[in-house]
User: Fold these one by one.
Assistant:
Number 1:
Amino acid sequence: MTIWTVAAALLSHWQRRPLQLGAVVLGLALATALWSGVQAVNAEARASYARAAAALDQNELAHLVSPHGRSIPQAVFVRLRRAGWNVSPVLEGEYRFGTARLRVIGVEPLTMPAETQAVDRRNAGELLSFISPPGTLIVSPETAEKIRRQTDLALRVSDRMPDGAAFVDIGLAERLLRREGELTRIVIAENQRPGLEPLGTLAPALLVREPSAQSDLEHLTESFHLNLTAFGFLAFAVGLFIVYSTIGLAFEQRRPTFRTLRCLGVSLSALAVSLLAELFLFALVAGAAGVIIGYLIASLLLPGVAATLEGLYGASVTGTLSLRPEWWLSGFAIAVAGTLISSIQSLLRLMRMPVLAAAQPQTWGRSSQTGRRFQVLAAAALLGLSGALILWADGLRAGFGVLGCLLLGASLLLPAMLSGFLTFMQRLSSGALVTWFWADARQQLPGLSLALMALLLALAANVGVGTMVSSFRLTFIGWLDQRLAAELYVAARNEPEADRLRAWLATKVESVLPIVSVDAEIRGQPMQIFGVVDDPTYREHWPLIVVMPDVWDRVASGEGVLVNEQFWRRERLRIGDQLDLASDWKATVVGVYSDYGNPKGQVIAGINALTSRHPQVSRLRYGLRVQPDQIADLRSSLSDEFGLPPDNIVDQAALKEQSRRIFDRTFLVTGALNIFTLGVAALAVFSSLLMLSEMRLPQLAPVWAMGVTRRDLALLEILRTLVLWLATFAAALPLGLVLAWVLLAVVNVEAFGWRLPMHIFPYEWVRLGLVALAAAVVSVFIPLRRLAGLAPSELLKVFANER
Amino acid sequence: MVIALRNLCKSYETAEGRLDVLRGIDLDLGAGDSVALTGESGSGKSTLLHLVAGLDRPDAGEIMIGGRDISKLDDSGRAAYRRTEVGLVFQQFNLIPSLDVAANIAFHAKLAGRHDPTWENELAERLGVGTLLTRYPEQLSTGQQQRVAIGRTLAARPGLVLADEPTGNLDEANGDAVLDLMLSLAKGTGSTLLMVTHSQKLADRLDRQVHLRSGKIA
Amino acid sequence: MSVRSIAIAFAVMIITSLSGNQAPSQGFAGLGSAAEGFSVPQPGRPFHFPVDHGAHPDFRIEWWYLTANLEAPDGTQYGAQWTLFRSALAPGENKGWSSPQLWMGHAAVTTSEDHFVAERISRGGVGQAGVVAEPFSAWIDDWQMQGNAVPGADQLANLTLTATAEEFGYELRLSATGPLVPQGDNGYSVKSAKGQASYYYSQPFYAVTGSLSLPTRNVEVTGKAWLDREWSSQPLAEDQTGWEWFSLHLDTGEKLMGFRLRDEGEGFTSATWITADGRPNPLPAGALRIVPVRTAKVAGRQIPVSWNVQIPSRGFDVTTRPLNDQAWMSTSIPYWEGPIAFEGSVSGRGYLEMTGY
């Protein structure tokens, strides 16, 4: 009963200040939304990987593999079974259904361990059509759409399948891949009978690959998700700034109410409980709103994330979001946690407040001298720590540690720096209004500093990530020009056609560059080995980073190979190192080339060195060097002469365009999150200004009374806000550049395996500045309209004696 | 500054309906006059003062200040009038918290274009705040703050000083001292002084008293 | 690995391959289905050994079915079963994974307290499971029935039988003390009044020595074993739902094979009386009468585990009792199979198989 009375008294505050209420709920909801949105995206992607891993790689089980990625004779599987081992064969490879390339995974459903079931063995019809000719492809709905018209084989759609892969019976896989009697790996089931002969004796040529806790995809994409999480957290923190400052204000403004209630005999604990209940209520309402907005954000982001993951890692993620109950719970939990974090200081202050504390609210947000000094010290410590991390730590987490310390340190430093700047400007000025302008800006700083810190974070993140992406793009486009040197790329449909094509082309073009590759496993990593002919195209264009003298001669002779940058960095290779490409193939690393957008390692060898060891390698694809004006002719005669479908003839420009599109799509998500974060920061500034405007009257009224028009006052208010925005923006630029450097030189190297040169894009800053300016004007607009439209009587109340 | 108020009327819309605060005020003040405006709470004294200060506009009537009707002025005209001709002292001192004492004292003078450091220093000395020039309002006692407020008003040498219970927040001794100072300084600058007070003792010290009752001069 | 799910699938698979769609309950394990494309047993075809010890891929189903009544030196009774089933999705054989042949192995050991069961399933064509006639070998994974006879001799005269599962295993050496015995009309075994039939011969005269490994102990055992070889494409009529099958070693040295196929009416019975020197006397349909004596709750169903078996024309009248009521084969196609003893006009031991419950 008492509690209700108390609660009613406390809650009446919000009724009178709906804007504050709105700020708390909106801030909390946005913080929750961005956080849980990003979490949902991550969870969805991880679920996809888990699905893919369970379906494709059977990662929870050990496998027998051939050390150099060679195929395993089927007889080995039979030998193991006949020795009592519970094992199951897998044959997989790439197969082209028309234009769609699928990863075809041939399995044997009768021996396949239950953990990895792709085929429901209890459904006999399903099983039967799976193993009986002509056979069935089990594919995801998306993949089914893609290949429906490209194959006569029966399709069975399964939601559990990742895109771009198909389960088939191992017999069908043999036929499709033309690898009769071959296996790529042997799955070892968990339960085995006792007393088995060791695998080492039965299959001495094979290696046991233990189940890994993480799938390859999870490992590869970890950096990306860490990245998203970091962004989500940044947005969450920015959102909490709003909540923190609003709750602080609401507590200060209710001090008289608290005092009155306590004088009337409400215990401190009852008061605290009421306030906690109030906060909890906010958290629930805002949490619910946040989860819903988060869901919308996530469904907005997911296609982009899926595109990114596809583009960067070849990881397939379903583009649709499923609502998971744990996600609701975590959304509420984070909302409650956020509320508590934001209000703990105010609650503690309340607990320490004596009954007869001053009933007048203290100047809100006024930070004490010691507080400010502590902030500066903490900032220095954090910045020092980030420097130390750059110098002495490595790893992706350390990279994000650097970012975290840097951002937090810089934002803690911001109020002191702004205060210094304003003091300096005030000193410079002499006119009464100008002096007042600067002094008053400084006066407002404590109340705005949290919002400005949030703004700094958002702007710096924008500058940093923008610089990173643009630098990457510039480098990538230049790299494409080098890499895609051939004017036309053509793919034959089968080997005889390829032979005819080669003969025909010999007289028609300047040079024919075969594109041949084999899958291999080098140093335990799945890789591709490409074979190249000795051609000026490579000598002149190939994007080499580090080289040995006569690099191309050495490659052509078969003595040396080139490795891509990510493999080079990951394995810490050096030029001149020996590399085991296969059991009977060693070569020297003679150069390193950049290979953006490829998650895997890659090796380039002389074509003879490759084909002598892999005589069966497919030679269907060719790059053609022709004069630019002959491209169109050649194209049409190719399709006339050979009847090649348009998809099999691609010109350089189209390929570049496609690559560029993939690239741009790849960073859409980052851009979207940037905008969201900036939006939340703008909202933080807006709500702070709104709150401040409520307490601005006593500060403005005397100036008005002394003869400054309301219009001028309003103009000064705009100017003041703009100056603070601009000062923050100016501070964000160097911070953003440092951020970009860390992203390019530390995080990218760890995450992707390549290091990029940094480019500066002042034009983008101008654009960001304009966006920020627009946000500033919007954020100041409403508070200002209130001021400009203020009736004199409102201002006069300030002078009223009966207060 | 000569002031002539003619048939001044002002009413406010309130929750209970229309409230006529001033109902036809006629009042004349000569240059250098000091007049106390007394009356019950709600009799309209503060409203009258605000109208004369150009902070608000009357519903009807004329406010002739130095020969022109300021009620006819627009917003910026009235702002200019306040800036250059009026000095205000309130019960709440309304110093600018972000400026130190010296800047507060100089503030209005600068706005009025009559910045005179010598005069401001002299004022500060005479008001007993000469040692506090670099302090900020929140670091001052109530009495000190009111002295600074008076200093700020007089530093601009306004032709008209309007004061609303200037000593209402001060204890009696402090109040007397502050009032003495204000009166003598106002006399010294030749300013006309209109002061709202409900203290008869204070009113007695001025040249003239005008008593308001229910929006009319009694 | 879920043995169960595979096995169920195996069973239903046979049905679907026969009927082209999923018509349920075409008799037990789909054995009562049409035989389109497959060869059908014909009367008067003599067996050709050793070729007929091997697989007959043109027929839909086939089995190598061995049961052994065993005894430890202390007199404790045991039973052991080793079965290899072949089931064809289509007639004929192809190399590699495209083989239409599927193989299924069942192994069991029965004690008076326990009944251990294991199952294996495999595709044909790659060598994971199969049968070679000479030198005889039948296997699935590491389970094996290996002939030890020299070429030219009867390939089934000496066998080594092994099976190992997670809980149990055995290794038995079998040597025949009598000849192979054709069942029915010189190996043409009629299964219904409508003429469904199979090729069927037995080797009921094995003397066994060997060892069982059980979770708690290893036991040396000796005893008798019985091998049934049968292949067909449509062994059951459509209305036949299951059977009781007896293989009995009489203490007199004689053997008796008898079965009853249940249908909606009286059922169809058939039996062969085998003299101690291995001469078969096929008995006319209806000569064998069986009546349940006691039922027990097994795997959630009531199953008659004790039977009165009579052949009045031979003055044969015995009552069987199982070594273990719960000899339930919890395989994909579940059935009851276990060692029994019998007393009455004559006593002895044998095996009982009951399906379709």
Number 2:
Amino acid sequence: MSLDPATVRRIAKLARIHLDDDDELPRLQKELNTILGYVEQLAEVNVEGVMPLSGGMEIAMRMREDVVNDGGYPEKILANAPDRIGDFFAVPKVVE
Amino acid sequence: MKTLDWTIVETLAALDSGQVSALELTEAHIAAVESLNPHLNAFITITSEIARKQAHAADVARRAGAAPALAGIPLAIKDLFCSENVRTTAGSKILGPFIPPYESTVSGKLFSAGAVMLGKANLDEFAMGSSNITSAYGPAANPWKRGDGAKLVPGGSSGGSASAVAARIAMGATGTDTGGSIRQPASFCGIAGIKPTYGRCSRFGIIAFASSLDQAGPMARSVEDCAVLLEVMSGFDPKDSTSADRTVPNFRAACGRNIAGMRVGIPVEYRVSGMAPEIEKLWQAGIDWLKHEGAEIFDVSLPHTKYGLAVYYIVAPAEASSNLARYDGVRFGTRVEGEDLIELYERTRAAGFGAEVKRRIMIGTYVLSEGYYDAYYLKAQKIRSLILRDFREAFANVDVLLTPTTPSAAFAIGEKMDDPVTMYLNDVFTVPASLAGVPAMSVPAGLDSCGLPLGLQVIGRHFDEESVFAIAAALERAADFRSLPALRAGATP
């Protein structure tokens, strides 16, 4: 199957990437379709009864105590913020 | 200066005997970086002042008889490892102004062991690439030249690391490998590099690309140097939930092991149609060298090999789309303002990410989206299971596998760029080991007809890097690879 321009636009919206309609959209449509065309071959593999492998190893995630073990340095955390107000990250107004 | 040609092992002996001081060694490297980096663009950020301080501290420690394992060894640190108070970009514009408030575990271990940081090495943006062309800070160059004088890529994503080590402006480097990003550039630049077992090195503080695949590893000019570096880089870290709680073996000792009686598998599926005759010839030479040393050679089958790349190009972008969601212009990095928050996100990410990163985020977003998850992502994860099973079954009968590292030698900027898949095919021999999480190393083994280096790959069982080092060291001894790149410290550029 192949992606149409509307689908490419929808993916970009989901990925929160602004696309330039005239130039980027047709190029990405072609490239994404090339990649999806290549991975189509996986359809021929029989995976009945096979468990999915999500990690690099078949290992269980290690748990730790649910306690605060880090923090208490707002200046370090905020040092890279593009915009801040006091000890908070600042963004454009969300609620009117 | 001759010292720039030394291996790390030779240098440590020279430092211990007082033949050279860490500061002298570091100054020689700083001068070499200054003269060659304008040609190579191997470093995004040069940290000479930090290097001098660390070198001085190494000299002080050595005089006090308390020199740690790597005291005074000048390294390049891939710009994907967070460096405390030093700009760390991941090769992306979106992290252009980012100065991490903490150090990655792996680089921290190296510095605790006395290593010296010459600078932050160039890479493909967010480690996504096989050429170093996708870096927002310009491509790094391969110090090797071929007859037509074309500017060659060093491979990627750890291209700056490989370029710096090959050109002798760093003695070793850190790399990261998600689908071949240590092994392919090592092969392209004529150096050694190992991706250890998934979980061997902590991922804490390494800017994430695909978390189930990302693994740090060393790159250096000898197999033994890689062993020395990996010993320091490895070890359990509670800050990484997939870090392996295992003791770190003596990798250096493994390099000297007798390989007689070891069982080496040759995976028949890697003999792809259309393989360049010189790659095939080199592979056969590797087989003969190991036979000569007493290893036993067996044909083995990894039936799902041909699906590796397709699985990788679903799994890695899926994880990337999730990992890179954090770059939203709010907490760090570059921001582009918008009318509202959504527009701020969209404009920030449109301006901050390069074309390859956008492509992968979008593929990842698509394969994880409602209605497509099962057909793409879940299916790929299941085939990943089958790929792991292939390796397990092969390793029931053999100790290691021997393959070529790459399907060709280094290519020129502009080649293999017709479409994304052509570029992705570079990783066809390296991706399966990444998907299975097993250790794999590239060793320089010969030159192609254009005089460019080619590597052989040794793949081992989970957590059996020792067998990989033993076989890789045997290949290195037999290959006796002494060719030098055209651009290197001490040679006129």
